């Protein structure tokens, strides 16, 4: 049974920083799985934030480019999202996603709220 568990969410002030983690467990070949962060704000559709491939290539949404950094530690089966210079528009539930040859896995999400 594959599990993805996000952590690190919370309340942060505008301009602040936060680091999210996504830990994978179970029979998942993490090191060869493309991992992605998505987010969903209230009343909005879920959107892609950033993707990292097994080879370390990254893709970012324009809205977070230059502010967020996605990374992975295959030895720890963990993916990260370093969020800097956050704004209220970054408020959302953040989900991690794993995609291995069509097998899709989702975490339960972690809430990030940006507010003063």
Can you describe this structure?
This protein is mostly beta strands and 116 residues long. It contains no helices and eleven strands. The chain has strands at 3-7, 10-12, 18-25, 34-40, 47-52, 58-60, 68-73, 78-83, 92-100, 103-106, 110-114. Strands 2, 4, 5, 6, 9, 10 and 11 form a seven-stranded mixed sheet that branches. Strands 1-3-8-7 form a four-stranded antiparallel sheet, with no helix packed on it. It is globular and about 40 Å long. The model has no long low-confidence stretch (mean pLDDT 95).
Summarize the SSE layout with pairings:
Elements: E1 3-7, E2 10-12, E3 18-25, E4 34-40, E5 47-52, E6 58-60, E7 68-73, E8 78-83, E9 92-100, E10 103-106, E11 110-114
Parallel strand pairs: 2-11
Antiparallel strand pairs: 1-3, 3-8, 4-5, 4-9, 5-6, 7-8, 9-10, 9-11
Keywords, please?
116 residues; mainly beta; 4-stranded antiparallel beta sheet; 11 strands; 0% helix
Biggest sheet overview: 7 strands, mixed
Number of strands: 11
Shape: globular
N→C terminal distance:
40 Å
| Rg over alpha carbons | 13 Å
Residues in helices, as a percent range: under 10%
Helix/strand order, N-terminal first: EEEEEEEEEEE
Our estimate of the beta-strand percent is over 45%
What quaternary form is this?
Answer: single chain
User: Mean pLDDT score, rounded?
Assistant: 95
Find the structural class using helix and strand composition.
mainly beta
